Amino acid sequence: MNKDRLTAFTDAILAIIMTVLVLELEKPAAADWQSLWALRSDFFSYTVSFFWLGAMWVNIHNRWSTIEKIDNKVIWCSIIMLFFSSFFPYVTSFVGDHFTSLFAQMVYSITVMCVSFANMALGRAVSKANGQPDAYDYTSGKIVAADLIIKVLGMILAVVFWPPFAMIGVILAGCLVTFLPPLLNKNK
After folding, report:
1. 68 CB neighbour count, 10 Å cutoff
2. CA distance 166 to 153
3. Which domain covers residue 81, as residue numbers?
4. Are 45 and 96 in contact (CB under 8 A)?
5. Helix, strand or coil, per DSSP, at residue 169
6. Which of 63, 84, 108, 138 is buried most deeply by CB count within 10 Å?
7. Is residue 128 part of a domain?
């Protein structure tokens, strides 16, 4: 299989997942602002999931634009990453319906962590398939570590203080991974 087929497959699956996210949004009980406001946690959860998946897609696209080869390990790491990503419509709806539930926030966070670890494995497999000794240079390795630390801190704060801190950790980690690398690359 060539790189372009796997890239197209990944793009298609992520596009479907992101489309299903919006289809899972509950409709307001009435056509008024009060009914729409009652669904704010659903819309917030949808927004976080959509942009987190979008940021992941951008980062994958940026990484894959420079690679030459893929192998079976890369293909299977992609499949595993897409498998965990496919849970996003379900966990997004679940956490939207039970926004202040610690259990719902942990299910959402665990899904995010599974996708993150699968994405890390994919990065390592891509690097190995292309003859690079390590998936991450010093800077990107630090960003990945900070990403995971922020998500774990969000989960800890959710347990200790307020369950939605788990999702806030996902937002902060997503911002870090999305906005910090371009800033660091400008300075090079």
Report:
1. 9
2. 8
3. 3-176
4. yes
5. helix
6. 108
7. yes
Of 53, 58, 60, 57, the closest CA to residue 20 belongs to 53
Diameter of the chain by CA atoms? 58
Res 62 pLDDT > 90: no
pTM, rounded to two decimals:
0.90
Helical (H) or strand (E) element with 54: helix 40-64
As for how many domains the chain has, the answer is: 1
Assigned domain for 96 exists: yes
Residue 145 has pLDDT above 90, yes or no: no
Task: Record the tokens describing residue 132, joined without a space.
Answer: 């690079």
Classify residue 186: in a domain, yes or no: no
What is the arithmetic mean of pLDDT over 58-83? 90
**Cβ neighbours, 10 Å, residue 69:** 11
d(CA 63, CA 67): 7
Tell me which residue of 12, 18, 43 sits closest to 28, measured CA to CA.
43
pLDDT score for 183: 67
Q: Could you give the count of Cα atoms lying within 13 Å of 76 in the half-sphere of its Cβ?
A: 4
Tell me the residue ranges of DSSP E strands in 64-151.
none
- Residues of the chain with pLDDT > 90, as a percent, come to 67
- Is residue 2 within 8 A of residue 70, CB to CB? The reply is yes
* Structural domain includes residue 147: yes
Neighbours of 31 (CB within 10 A): 8
Among 48-62, 127-141, 151-165, which range has the highest average pLDDT? 151-165
